[in-house]
Amino acid sequence: MNDLSRLANFFFETGILQNLKRSGNIFLGSGEQTVASHIFRVVIIGYVMSKIMNADSYKVILMCLFHDIEETRTGDLNYLQQMYIKSDDERALKDLLNGLPIKDEIETILKEYAKLETLEAKIAKDADSLELILFLKEQLDKGNPQAQNWINSARKRLITETAKELCVEIENGRYY
Question: What is residue 126's predicted lDDT score, i.e. its pLDDT?
Fold first, then answer.
C-alpha cells in the first residue's frame, strides 16, 4: 500500500468517530453525542484555555484533537465496561498511526498528555472534563436530574484553577 493510500484509509477510519456514540449516555438516561462532536468541543475549549493560560496552543490542540483517536479501533468504553474489559489503547494507537507521517509527533504528544506533567497536558485533560461537564449541564437543563451527580463527579477531576473557575460559570449558566 502506498503512502497516499495509507493516508486515505486513515482519513476514512477517523470518519468512524462521526458515527461512534459516546457510551456513557446509556447510563445517564438522556442525550446523544458522538466521539467526534465531543472531540470538536474539547479542541475549542483547549485552544481557548491555552490562550488564557499562555500555554503552547499547538500542543494543546494536538492533544485535544487526538486524545480519543484510538477509539476508532477500541470503541468508547464507559466506566462500567472498563471494569470488565481492558482496552489495549497503546496497541490500537500504534496500529492506527503505523506508516503515517504524523506517527512520531502524535505518539509523543499523547505520551505527554498521559503523564499530565506539563501545563499543556493539564489544559487538554481539563478541556476533556469541561466538555463532559458542559454536555451534562445541557442534560440537566433539559430535565435530567441525574446529570448533577455526574457533574459533581467530573468536577473533582479538574486540575487547573482556570478550569475550576470555568466550571463554576458553566454550572451557573443555562443551556439554551
Answer: 98
Beta partners for residue 172, in sequence order: none
Judge contact between 126 and 160, C-beta under 8 A.
yes
Tell me the chain's radius of gyration from C-alpha atoms: 17
3-state secondary structure 16-74: HHHCCECCCHHHHCCCCCEHHHHHHHHHHHHHHHHHHCCCCHHHHHHHHHHCCCCHHHH
Residue 30 gets the label, from left (phi > 0), alpha (psi -120 to 50) or beta, of beta
Q: Which amino acid is at 166?
A: L
What pLDDT is stored for residue 176 in this prediction? 67
Q: How far is CA 14 from the centre of its chain?
A: 14
The per-residue pLDDT for range 65-120, each reduced to its tens digit, is 999 999 999 999 988 898 999 999 999 999 999 999 999 999 999 999 999 999 99
pLDDT score at 79: 84
> What is the pLDDT, as a whole number, of residue 1?
59
List, as one string, the DSSP characters of 66-99: HTTTTHHHH----HHHHTT----HHHHHHHHHTT
Inform me whether the pLDDT recorded for 166 exceeds 70: yes
* Residues ≥6 apart with Cβ < 8 Å to 69: 14, 17, 93, 96, 106
The per-residue b/e assignment along 111-125, b for 16 or more CB within 10 angstroms, e otherwise, is: ebbeeeebbbbbbbb
